[in-house]
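Repro:
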Amino acid sequence: MRIRTLGFLVLAGLAIWFIAVNTGSVSIRLWIPTVTLPLWVVLTVTLLVGILLGMFLSMRRRARR
């Protein structure tokens, strides 16, 4: 197993653990409305947006070469 794959698996495991442990509710202000959601939902959405942005930037950089 490559170091990069192992590092990814460790980070993914830590992210999943962190999300699972944080189960309280938080209020988020979205310009006008204030939304109350469980923290794990907010963390999961943030993680997915980060993954999608990383993939997009990676593909864009690959297309330039």
